[in-house]
Write a structure and sequence with these properties.
Elements: H1 5-19, H2 27-34, H3 38-50, E1 54-57, E2 63-66, H4 75-82, H5 107-123, H6 127-130, H7 134-140, H8 148-154
Antiparallel strand pairs: 1-2
């Protein structure tokens, strides 16, 4: 199973906001830290904002922050809400299934159980669990976010 870039960016955004909780950050900060597209992140952040996971503050000194405590953000829920489907093989979708083996194939059941187990593991994890190593994560991010006052003073 492979997660979409959208889900990957959603998880990375939440992790970034989680390790930079003391400051508001911008979409550009996140894009620069991970080397990913700002335009893709805008869509991700918009959806995370609608779901309440991210709080967006408008204005000149605005930015982003977590909308919930890390302990309240369930990774399984994030993945379920950001993935379009979990159709691992053609036969999972009856409308397009043309596989001749489907009527008696055991693989369908095995893959369904594997997907359920995968989601069950993710459901047992919160953002707080992913941030246990936040010091190392912060070091690995290429961009250090500073409070807006320090950035203005340095300019």
């Amino acid at each position: 199973m492979r997660l979409t870039d959208y889900t990957d960016y959603s998880l990375r955004t939440l992790m970034y906001l989680g390790i930079h909780r003391e400051n508001l950050v911008t979409i550009q900060d996140i894009a620069d830290a991970y080397g990913i597209s700002k335009s893709h992140l805008m869509k991700v952040v918009h959806q995370l904002g609608l779901s309440g996971l991210v709080e967006t503050i408008r204005g000149r000194s605005g930015g982003l922050r977590l909308g919930k405590e890390p302990e309240e953000i369930n990774i399984g829920d994030v993945v379920r809400n950001t993935e379009p489907d979990f159709m691992m093989v053609e036969c999972f979708n009856r409308e397009i299934n043309e596989c001749v083996l489907s009527p008696s194939c055991e693989l369908q059941d095995v893959l369904r159980r594997a997907t359920a187990a995968y989601l069950q593991v993710l459901s047992g994890v919160t953002l707080a669990d992913l941030l246990r190593n936040s010091g190392a994560l912060r070091t690995m991010a290429r961009v250090q976010v500073y409070p807006r006052d320090k950035a203005k003073a340095a300019a």
